[in-house]
């Protein structure tokens, strides 16, 4: 018989249990440290625990579009509504589809319910506006105004000063921060004024006209602080450019509040009014001219990979008949101008999602947008453009106000039930396993720390919110985790009953227990995954928590319970089978030691006796 190789361990053996324990302890310390470093030590609470308002929206087909309710359109609508709600400063809102034609919006407390209702209950507004001026997204530092800059209202000719007028002290739109002679005398100011004058010549707008006189549609002229009434003229393009420049300087698109305010102002503005808007990422702010093409003029949009010309991902647009003419006219005008006035802004709900430039007039009702797109960004822009002609509208089916008091009472009852269940588990472990119960309790404590810290960190990373079903999933996980310990303990006790000592029993029992634990946890995780995929709403919270705790159960058993048992098997209290260790051979009904039966010599048989 060949001698065993040196250093060979038995199946399931673990040569360095101390290092494995140190590894998981370091991971626990890192997670706890990360939780405290993040500044948040409690999980995000769902609407049923924190309170708030829940809306259920029902999708409706527009006339002539019977098959518009589909997965693509619903998912696009979810993205738009989520951006709207987040624009209100509600980063913890939940927006998700429910069934085939419903969208559920859960908004935590602290948000104006009526304002939220107005945001989620209206159809998205998409439009194309020419870009008149661009500046950096941050707020432009204010300059000390000269006396003439604030002298509006003293002389009716002051509002219509030309390029030789008095200095205003307002910085230029280029974002340099240096004062220019006036908003209309700077290069950028002249460009905006000229663009407004051109818009006024082609479109009868109440804010600007070609000759600076009133067009007759604005009977209620703005009054100055000194009470001038009938003698105040309609603002000229130069005055409008100065007002827009002042708004542009004051706007700060780098903050969520600034972007939300700008988006709301653009959404409320009339189509024939110039506006000041923010780019989606807050990197820039722009003065935009009146709406040139409506989103409803877009018939379709798609993301396509261009392999022939090597442009990568591009976005292809198709316009309706009337939209084709409008788009050809505006691109023809933009192509003759210099940057940034050769760009048009794609504005969705008051937010500039893209601002491509135009090099030539685009005819035929088809256009392409290219330039450094990834597959995801191209698809997102195509979805935004498609939503402008999305043949869906939404009506609010139900609106429910959830109080935190009700959720708090249910949470309290659930925690009491969980505490009672945990206490019964502990009593059972101590009564049946005695010293081994300490291993089980330490493992449960390790699992609880990992679960809690990961839930807190996931709340900030992916927006995971702890609701009542999720709490139920965590309580159910106590039984799953305890079951894994019991499987392993029973395998060890079976080995001791066969006559083995503790150290080989721990190593020989592990492979069998490991197989059973993995199969059991796989079934639980599979059930949680299927439940998470096929359900919506709060049931997903239960499935997510159940799946998370099932994975953590495997981690704890492999990297904490097993190494700990390997170390304890070297201690006399457990190795000698102390009556309170839970591994007493006499109490377990162990057979005589196997090694004794193997070494007992066979007595020779005397022929005479035979």
Describe the structure.
- The protein is an alpha+beta fold and 610 residues long.
- It folds into 3 domains: 17-45 and 403-591, Multidrug efflux transporter AcrB transmembrane domain (Multidrug efflux transporter AcrB transmembrane fold), CATH 1.20.1640; 51-123, Alpha-Beta Plaits (2-Layer Sandwich); 128-145 and 161-214 and 234-393, no CATH class.
- Helix content is 47%, strand content 15%.
- The chain has 17 helices and 13 strands.
- The chain has helices at 17-37, 47-50, 71-87, 113-120, 187-202, 237-250, 256-268, 321-334, 375-387, 404-433, 436-461, 468-497, 502-534, 538-568, 572-575, 585-588, 594-599; strands at 52-61, 94-98, 102-108, 126-136, 275-279, 284-288, 293-294, 298-306, 312-319, 344-348, 351-354, 366-373, 392-402.
- Helix 10 (404-433) packs antiparallel against helix 11 and helix 12 packs parallel to helix 14.
